């Protein structure tokens, strides 16, 4: 009777050791994958930030260069036209742009 009990003890112990080793391997692999994922996401975020900053600097340089070298004067003012008519035209263009922007925002939010 002693032999089956001893055998059962060692079988149970072996099962516990195998389960522990597999659990340890699984947790180690999961943590490794999590570390890899975290590193990849940090690298992706760094690349994204670099790209955004680069584009912003490029756009800023273009805008700065354009604003210092180009001054837009309406044709009416260049030829001595009616100032009030020019102002009315500009207001109409602004209203049109606002309505177009509102349509764009409405389409984007849907």
UniProtKB/TrEMBL annotation:
Taxonomic source organism: Leptolyngbya boryana NIES-2135
Keywords: Coiled coil
InterPro entries, alphabetized: PG18-like
Residue ranges the record marks as coiled coil: 80-107
PANTHER family: BNACNNG14650D PROTEIN (PTHR35745), OS04G0513000 PROTEIN (PTHR35745:SF1)
Superkingdom as given in the UniProt entry: Bacteria
Gene Ontology process terms (BP): thylakoid membrane organization
Pfam families membership: DUF6825
UniProt-recorded name of the protein: Thylakoid lumen protein
Record's signal peptide: none
């Amino acid at each position: 009777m002693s032999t089956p009990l001893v055998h059962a003890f060692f079988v149970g112990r072996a099962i516990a050791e195998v389960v522990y080793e597999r659990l340890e391997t699984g947790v180690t692999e999961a943590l490794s994958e999590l570390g890899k994922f975290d590193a990849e996401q940090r690298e992706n975020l760094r690349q994204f930030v670099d790209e955004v900053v680069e584009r912003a600097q490029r756009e800023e340089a273009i805008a700065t260069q354009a604003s210092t070298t180009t001054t837009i004067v309406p044709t009416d003012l260049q030829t001595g036209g009616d100032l009030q008519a020019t102002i009315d035209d500009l207001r109409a263009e602004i209203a049109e742009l606002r309505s177009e922007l509102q349509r764009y925002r409405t389409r984007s939010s849907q």
